[in-house]
Write a structure and sequence with these properties.
heterodimer, A: about 100 residues, mainly alpha, 4 helices, B: about 350 residues, alpha/beta, Rossmann fold, 3 domains, 5-stranded parallel sheet, globular
Chain lengths: ~100, ~350
């Protein structure tokens, strides 16, 4: 196994790990805002790490450049989407879940 | 202009859309005088208004003056305050209630007399009393004194006269270049057909979108900002990585130790692009999610207490300021310090 292979495998594993964290987060977290955290960010990192692995596997060349561009767009669009969802929720006056509420109940 | 304008300039300051350009104009004028060997000093004076309606929308005088000073130093290219043009800021009339243009004019004339200034540059959109028009009566009152009165020749968006300006061409060229390069990269630089169709597509894109995608033309500061952004990118990536590990810990922890809450703070960044950059960076760093931005007021949802503390320590904010305004703008204190007295965190 070459060092490149090892790096590719490490990146893929890390990517999958964060994708799983995102999924677990969406299931476990209590409300829309907190779930948006998990869905947008851990997921971004997961996708970015996987794409990084793909870019490494391709080696130098046009496919790598495309992968990197894809990566950049993930970074730009994911926060925007999360922001749009959270803002829509706020416009609908959805109150964020807090630990206090749980104490009261 | 022909009679050798003075370099001792007074600029009344108030929130306005053309404030940035007025500051730039005043600094440029002062600098020309300094280069001609005359004494050059610019005083930015904020006459406090009696108006109390809508205090949320406006900066308090000190922070507005801080911002003006940062702009002025940026225009001077002066990081340590050693330039030949002196910059002063002052708040005036905090003890009286300014009501009419005459009151404003008197305040400014007194200030000019005290500080030996003889030229006033007025922002054409200067409306300290809210929506009431102020500039013309103010200029009339000022002109009855010995001061030289001048309106800053700034461009206003609603009064565009010429169809094509130099900056339009620069915007067009930038968008055209970026689109063309993108097209060729995606196509893999594959032969004449691609070069021709790419040029055509890029021309159409630039013609349609250059005004939308770039709100102002790239100028001499753009390359420097791009360089600083290159420093910023790894810093942001590191922050993202670090914070993601924390969030993974929180999410996978059996007891789910979260403490979500909304945080509201006023960021010390100005203009559209820096605000957008900061908002997106906040969203990208895990544990914080920008919900809404109104003017400079950020509404951020935070997942944990530590994420909240990091946000208010202002590391990201400082980095964004570094990218857009240079090193000395990083000295502004952090959000936590700025709002030490106003606690608005929702429990």
């Amino acid at each position: 196994m070459t060092p490149t292979d090892i790096a590719v495998i490490a990146l893929s594993v890390a990517g999958i790990f964060f994708a799983i964290v995102a999924a677990v987060g969406v299931l476990r977290l209590p409300d829309l805002y907190t779930r948006a955290h998990a869905a947008s960010k851990s997921d971004t990192l997961g996708a970015v790490l996987s794409l990084g692995a793909a870019a490494l596997a391709f080696g130098a060349g046009v496919p790598t450049v495309k992968t990197v561009l894809l990566l950049v767009f993930m970074f730009l669009t994911n926060p925007t989407a999360a922001h749009a969802i959270a803002r829509a929720a706020e416009d609908q006056d959805i109150e964020p879940w807090t630990t206090d509420e749980e104490g009261d109940a | 202009m022909t009679t050798g304008p003075s370099g001792r300039i007074l600029v009344p300051i108030g929130e306005s859309v053309t404030l940035r350009k007025t500051v730039a104009y005043a600094v440029r004028e002062a600098r020309e005088c300094a280069e001609a060997g005359e004494a050059a000093t610019v005083h930015f004076v904020y006459p406090i208004t009696g108006r109390v309606a809508d205090p949320e929308e406006f900066d308090d005088p000190e922070s507005l003056l801080d911002r003006v000073e940062v702009w002025a130093r940026e225009d001077l290219g002066d990081e340590d305050g050693s330039a030949e043009v002196r910059i002063e800021t002052a708040v005036r009339a905090s003890d009286v209630y300014l009501f009419s243009p005459i009151d404003y004019a008197r305040t400014l004339i007194d200030y000019a007399a005290e500080n030996d200034l003889d030229r006033v540059i007025v922002d054409p959109e200067y409306t300290p009393a809210g929506s009431a028009p102020m500039v013309q009566p103010l200029e009339y009152e000022l002109s009855r004194s010995d001061l030289t009165i001048e309106e800053a020749p700034v461009e206003r968006k609603t009064r565009r006269a010429r169809l094509v300006r130099g900056s339009d061409l620069a915007q067009f060229a930038t968008v055209f270049g970026a689109s063309y390069l993108f097209y060729l990269v995606i196509g893999g630089f594959a032969g004449t057909f691609d070069y021709v169709t790419g040029a055509f597509s890029a021309a159409v894109t630039a013609a349609l979108l250059s005004q939308i995608s770039l709100s102002e033309a790239p100028d001499s500061r753009t390359p420097l900002r791009a360089l600083r952004a290159l420093v910023y990118a790894p810093y942001l990536l590191w922050e993202i990585a670090k914070a993601n590990v924390t969030i993974a810990y929180v999410v996978l922890h059996p007891r789910l130790p979260i403490d979500p809450g909304m945080v509201e703070f006023k960021a010390a960044v100005w203009d559209d692009v820096p605000v957008t950059t900061l908002a997106n960076s906040i969203t990208l760093t895990p544990g914080t999610l920008t919900v809404d931005v109104r003017k400079r007021r950020f509404y951020v949802h935070t997942l944990t207490t530590s994420a909240r503390e990091d946000l208010l320590d202002g590391g990201l904010e400082r980095a964004v300021r570094f990218v857009f305004y240079g090193r000395q703008a990083t000295n502004i204190e952090s959000p936590a310090e700025r709002r030490a007295d106003e606690e608005v965190t929702e429990e």
